[in-house]
Amino acid sequence: MAEKLKELLTEWRNPDTENLDTLPTLDILKKLNLEDQKAALAVEKELDTVAQAVDLVVQAFEQGGRLFYFGAGTSGRLGMLDAAECPPTFGTDPSLVQGVIAGGLSALVEAIEGAEDEPDLGREDVDKVGVKAEDVVVGIAASGRTPYVMGAMEEAKRRGAKTIALSCNPDSEMSKVADVAIAPVVGPEAVTGSTRLKAGTAQKMVLNMLTTASMVRMGKVYGNLMVNVQATNEKLRERVKKIIMDATECTWEEAEKLAEQAEGDARVGILMKLKGISSGEARAQLNRVGGRIRQALEN
User: Fold this and answer.
1) Among all residues, which ones are annotated catalytic?
2) Which of 91, 270, 273, 289 yields a CA-CA distance of 20 to 30 A from 141?
3) How many domains does the chain have?
4) Taking the CB of residue 144, how many other CB atoms lie within 10 A of it?
């Protein structure tokens, strides 16, 4: 095992932080901040492959497929987080984007390290969630070699699903299985081997891109406005009003009335104002174009 770890760039010792424990607080933070900046630059170099991955996801969504994240430890938690944010942000069904973590839901709040060593558990979890040929499976592992994730990707591939690898080591084992391999190479961590740091930051950035760009392509965003947001609390109800106001250049008072008539659906309120139609007709027009507000406006 030690020999294998020595081969992984994410497990190397970082020469820039070898004296980390001797520094005052502010200097520790400066070192961490400098390392984090490398994450964004590493992701920038992978944008072409991220775009390929987004295209796979959009194609799957258009064909009735779903997006699954499989990971262990920090990588699994990041996948679960990104999946959980899609329904409130984009108004999607919870089944459209799903996160699966080695060890199950309890692994979200406590470390279940042994689960990541079992490829069969990955295969079993693929079966449990019912991955099909029209779906896309993203395997997330900073090392690029986590057995649980490898098992999940191999089983998904056997079922005909498209697979995407997200790791922070070049030429990883996962990349050889995947249809698209995304590998932001962030280098050694500030604390040796602690991939919850800049490797985790880079992974989260890529996951944000995968779902956000895919949802934009699917018409869940109008301009840069979160028009499918679900108004489930006071803050989000106020956000719906502001979205309507920004999209239509109406007054706040008018946005309040439109939001009420639209029952909290910003898209409906926007269509009502811009096309001078009732809430019922706005909903009907949205239904005819699969909820894509720009298409409804242009028609």
Assistant:
1) 85, 116
2) 91
3) 2
4) 27
3-state secondary structure of 99: strand
Over the chain (299 residues), the average pLDDT of each successive run of 10 is 63 92 97 96 98 98 97 95 95 96 87 80 97 98 95 98 96 95 94 92 98 96 94 93 96 96 96 96 95 92
Kindly state whether residue 226 falls inside one of the protein's structural domains: no
Q: What is the chain's length?
A: 299
Q: Is residue 207 part of a domain?
A: yes
The answer as to whether 1 is a domain residue is: no
Provide the 3-class DSSP secondary structure of residue 197: coil
Q: Which domain holds residue 245?
A: 234-298
SS3 content of the chain, % helix, strand, coil (to 5): 60, 10, 30
Spatial contact of 200 and 142, defined as CB atoms under 8 Å apart = yes
Query: What angle (nearest 5°) sits at the alpha carbon of residue 142, between those of residues 140 and 146?
Result: 70
Q: Concatenated DSSP letters for 131-187?
A: --TT-EEEEE-SSS--HHHHHHHHHHHHTT-EEEEE-SSTT-HHHHH-SEEE-----
Final residue in a domain of this structure, among 170, 189, 217? 217
